Please model this.
Amino acid sequence: MALDIEALKNAIEEKATKSPKPQLYIKDFYACDPDSKPRVIKNVANEMVREGRLMFWSSGSTTMYGIPSRIQDEEGEE
Amino acid sequence: MAKHETPLLDQLETGPWPSFVTDLKRQAATKPECWDILGILELSYKDRITHWKHGGIVGVFGYGGGIVGRYADMPKQFPGVEHFHTIRVAQPSSKYYSTANLRQLMDLWEKHGSGMTNFHGSTGDIILLGTRTENLEPFFWDLTHDMGQDLGGSGSNLRTPANCIGHSRCEWSCYDTEEACYHLTQHYQDEIHRPAFPYKFKFKFSGCPNDCVAAIARSDVSVIGTWRDEIRIDQAAVKEYVAGNYPPNGGSHSGKDWGKFDIQKEVIDLCPTDCMWMEGGELKIDDTECTRCMHCINVMPRALRPGADQGASICVGAKAPILDGAQFSTLIVPFMKVEKENEFEELIEFIESIWDWWMEVGKNRERVGETMQRVGLPTFLKVMGIEPIPQHVKEPRSNPYVFWKEEEVEGGFERDVEEFRRKHAA
Model:
């Protein structure tokens, strides 16, 4: 059974926090709940960006997600 | 006065063609950061390596696309391009602009950015080159509130859809490309502005097989107008072309005397499937053999027109990368009605089936055409629930083996083979 939205957000946050790399592809979050459809995970990840729990990092051609403090540390920005 | 010495770039101005170096020098008169663009590019030519850092976290609130972060790796030497972000602005359908709109856009860009532009990027949108992070939100506010325009797509988003001029000015368009593009752009606002996919995804709309937006070469879903009945022929007009009274090709290529129009040499002999001939002074076409190459229609537009039963062919999987191989899209649906009346329901259903599959199966940074190639067309068709048809066959098979699936074999893989052989001894 798929996780409820809040549990999924927590799982995504944990994954993004513990991952060796600060930026993750959206597909990396699929494993947080194999029972949730990719579109659900995408919508939740985007909602977390709006809430400030995640942040986008984009090369221009690809977009990745990460915990804001971790990405900002790597970017060397405030 | 020049801020940096640019001997290598200066050489580019000596050619007979217009030079971006000259343009940048002119722009630097009012936008001094353009000197630093020239300086950093000169240094890259000298060092043979880029001095741009790749990517970043910049954007406008609520959007996950439309802004591409760009930073110089030598900000002290080139402070004007320390931040030099790119902004993608969605272009109007068919790229119809009013001069008032263009002036307003340029005024906005002079106010918030470098004034440098690229009309247009290969996806089709307006590219505004070079601004600082603190200018992004004010620019976005003015763009959306004062001009009613929006950012385009970037990153792992649906990219700004593009279309040809369609019914607005072209008699060959087999469906309303502008309506289709506008409808799908509105329908997929979330996918354009927020990343959704393993990689970029594009769709483009061409009204006829001339494919003026090069959908077949550049888009993951190419919607290319076609017809499934016969090419409409006006035999009286054919006679006028043959008599030399109508200029071929709509009068183009007329700067040189090519001699009298020869329908045999210039049309019939050039038909890729040899499906045309003259008979009793009339042009005949075996439409069952026509591949919709458009050559005859292009040459004799007053005599020939696309058929009346119109729709679109849907091809999937093109990409046009710079480094590794370009790939045309593959025909998947030979004919689909593309109509506003049902709000493009069939097309939307088709696109979303692809997305559902690709989001699950596609690898990171893998275009849908690459995923299709990896799993093979038969698997893709099966997943999409599409019956294979002759139009899907690219070439005769080279593999002599047939790999059956268990459900395709009577009795499955566990059947009694001895019993089967007793009944089929030979």
Notes: Chain A has a mean pLDDT of 91. The first helix of chain A runs from residue 5 to 18. Residues 18 and 47 of chain A are 20 Å apart (CA to CA). Chain A has one domain: 5-75.
